[in-house]
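Narrative summary of target 7.
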Amino acid sequence: MEKKESPKKKNTESRQKGNWPFAKTSGFSDRIFSIIKLVLGICLLFLVYTSSVSFIGEFSKIDRVLQNYFWWGAVTFLIIYLFIWEPAIIYTKGQRALELTFNLFKPLVRVAPYLFPIYTIILLAAYGLLSLIFGSQEVIKFFMFFFSFSIALHLVFSAKSLRSKQEDFLKANYIFGFSFLYVLNLALLALVLNLVFAEFSFVSYFNNSFQQAKDIFYAVFNQLFLR
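Modeled conformation, tokenized:
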């Protein structure tokens, strides 16, 4: 005698095959949300550009020798990453440390490893301590090098991690996520430099970034919709 399938089992199989109406609705809403994130990510690209230009403008006020140490830190990381060794284990250990730190704050557990460059924060604390012992002039060159090295490490591996996410419709999560991550981390770096150097103004950096982004966005909007 043939065994009949229970209605519950049929419903379960139907959901798994994607024939369940709620599954269809969920997939459609996910795609709509991805499109919204893509649009927001494209808008954030304006801020990526203007914050970079504003940062370089403020950074150019710092002593040229220290600027060179900073840029060599980023170049050194890229050379190591591209041609010698991918220090993924260093990035992973930093992420785990942040996850443990924010374990009590559930909403931040998943995003904190991306938002906060743990090694840059540790370096800032170490710089503050060592500058009291040896004097800031003795240690600032080394810390400028490693500030840049650490922020480059964080951005590169965060971008790689975001890019590897599955089911990223139109790459919306990557474009939005990395743009937001870049702007936030550059602002954090600007705040660090504001604390270290009198010549670097975080307020000027912030105001110039948003004013320029506002002007570009208005110009694009005007060309597309108001002409």
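The first helix runs from residue 7 to 16.
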